[in-house]
Structures are given as C-alpha cells and as structure tokens.
Recover the amino acids of this structure.
C-alpha cells in the first residue's frame, strides 16, 4: 500500500472515510497481527455495519494467518448471520485443528441455522485435515436436513478417495438412500482425488 503500519491504522480508524475505503486496510492489519493492528481491527468491528464487517471478516481470514482466529472467533456468534457466515469462510482459510473443532461444533449444533451448518460443512471440506474429515463423517448420520447433508457430502468429496470410499459405498448401497442424494454422492465422489 505504500503506507506505514501507523498510517494504515490511522486510516482504518478515520471515521471521516467511508467503510468501503476503510475496510481495504483490514487485510494488511490482520496479516501484520501486532497488538496495535488487532486493537484497531477490533475497534472497527465494533462500529462497522454488518455488510462491511462480513467483508472484512472473510478478507482477514483469507490471509491464512492463525492470528486471525482471535478476530474471527467472536464473530461466529454475531447477531447478523452474514457476519457469522463470513467468519466461517475466513476461518476455513486459517484451517488449524482448532478451527476444524470449532466448525465441527457449529455443524453438530441443531440450534444453528441451516445456512451456518451448511457453511461449516463446506469449511470443513476446505480445511481437509483428519479432524475435519472425522467431523463430517460423524455429522453425516445425525443430520436430517437434506441441504446440510448435501454439503457434508460435497465437503467429504474434497478428501482423497481412499479416505471416503467406504462411507460413500455404504450410503449408495443403502436401499433407503433417496435418488437425489445418490446423485449428490456420485458427484461428490467425482470431485475426490485418487490419492
């Protein structure tokens, strides 16, 4: 950006600038991750309208920096669902085992909306670690909602074929598997890798 860290912080905190301009500095501050940068981001999050908060949350997560977790955890419970969904997407870029465990909690929580649970399933597929796979497999039998189950299958389809083939084979062989879900399963299998 050509700006020093101090100048970047000053600009993101400048209330005279509109949020669409201020939010562009969020990624740099999240990437730096210094106490001053995090404090500035938290201050902006407190006053940002939901659409800007959601944009910044996803942008901050896209750095992949584990320090972003501190900013994104609280947003998972934001009253505006757009912000919580963006936080899930952002956390899936970070992708640590701790993030997998948190997304697994969201996926398994029946009090969460379908959209949150769906995004958690997709995020786990993107993370792709053993904890994410185990969470998706564990949630698959417990999810009555077809849309969430579809995204669980799509998430599992991102894993190597040998890790998911048995589950998918059993599901396809079960006589009570709906025809639509068989199609989803085959499509998800087509996305898995041979490794």
């Amino acid at each position: 950006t050509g700006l020093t860290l101090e100048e970047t912080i000053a600009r993101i905190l400048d209330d005279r600038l509109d949020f669409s301009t201020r939010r562009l500095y969020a990624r740099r501050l999240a990437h730096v991750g210094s106490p001053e940068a995090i404090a500035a981001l938290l201050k902006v999050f407190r006053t940002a309208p939901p659409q800007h908060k959601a944009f910044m949350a996803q942008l901050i997560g896209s750095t992949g920096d584990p320090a972003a977790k501190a900013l994104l955890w609280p947003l998972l419970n934001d009253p505006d669902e757009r912000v919580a969904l963006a936080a899930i997407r952002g956390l899936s870029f970070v992708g640590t085992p701790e993030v997998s465990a948190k997304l697994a909690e969201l996926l398994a929580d029946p009090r969460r909306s379908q959209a949150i649970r769906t995004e958690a399933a997709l995020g786990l597929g993107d993370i792709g670690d053993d904890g994410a796979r185990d969470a998706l497999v564990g949630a698959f039998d417990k999810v009555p909602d077809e849309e969430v189950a579809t995204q669980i299958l799509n998430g599992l389809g991102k894993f190597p074929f040998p890790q998911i083939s048995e589950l998918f084979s059993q599901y396809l062989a079960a006589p009570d598997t709906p025809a639509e879900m068989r199609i989803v399963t085959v499509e998800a299998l087509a996305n898995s890798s041979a490794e």
Observations:
- The CA atoms of residues 8 and 28 lie 8 Å apart.
- DSSP finds 13 helices and no strands in the chain.
- The mean pLDDT is 88.
- Residues 81-94 form the longest helix (14 residues).
